[in-house]
Amino acid sequence: EILRHSIASRPLTEHKTMVEFGSFVGYTATRMGRAVEVTYEKGYADGSILFEDSRLQGSNRVTSMEIDPIHACIARHVVDIARLSHIVEVWIGQVKDLIPRLGEEYGDLNLNMVFMDQRGTTFHDDL
C-alpha cells in the first residue's frame, strides 16, 4: 500500500530516477521497475510518449542500493527473472558512498523519488 501510493504520488517524467535504499531480495525494485514499464507501454499505446523520443532522451530508471552483496545478487537475479534489467539496477555498497555516483551517472537534479526501505540500524544515518 505504501509503495503503490509513493509511486502514484510522483508522476514519471523524462530523465528521472527512482532510488531505493535497501534492496533485500529485489521485490520493491521490481515493483517500481514494472510501474515504469507499464507507464511507458500506456504512453506508447495512446501516443503520449513517442518511442523514438523516449529512446533518444533516455527513459526512467530505478536504482536500488544494497549493502549486503548476497542480497544484491539475489535482487539482481529477481530483476532478471522479471525481465526488468533494462530499467532496474542494483548497486552494492553503503548509501553514503553511492549517493555521489547518482549525480555522476544521472545528473544532480535527476531524482524523482527516494524510497528508504533499508534496515532500521542504518535508516537514521542515511536520512
Features:
alpha/beta, globular, 127 residues, 6 helices
What share of residues is helical? 40-55%
Give the ordered list of helices and strands: HEHHEHEHEH
Distance linking N and C termini? 22 Å
Helix count equals 6
Regions with pLDDT < 50 over 5+ consecutive residues? none
Q: What sort of overall outline do the alpha carbons produce when their principal axes are compared? A: globular
Radius of gyration: 14 Å
Strand content: 15-25%
Biggest sheet: strand arrangement: 3-2-1-4
* Derived structural class: alpha/beta
> For the residues shown, what is the average pLDDT?
81
Number of strands: 4
Q: How many strands, what sense, and barrel or not for the largest sheet?
A: 4 strands, parallel
SSE layout:
Layout: H1 2-9, E1 17-21, H2 27-46, H3 51-57, E2 61-66, H4 69-81, E3 88-92, H5 95-106, E4 111-116, H6 120-126
Parallel strand pairs: 1-2, 1-4, 2-3
Describe, in short, the structure shown:
The chain has 127 residues and is of the alpha/beta class.
Task: Give a verbal description of the structure.
It is a single chain. The chain has 127 residues and is an alpha/beta fold. The chain has 6 helices and 4 strands, in the order H-E-H-H-E-H-E-H-E-H. Strand 2, helix 4 and strand 3 form a beta-alpha-beta unit. The mean pLDDT is 81.
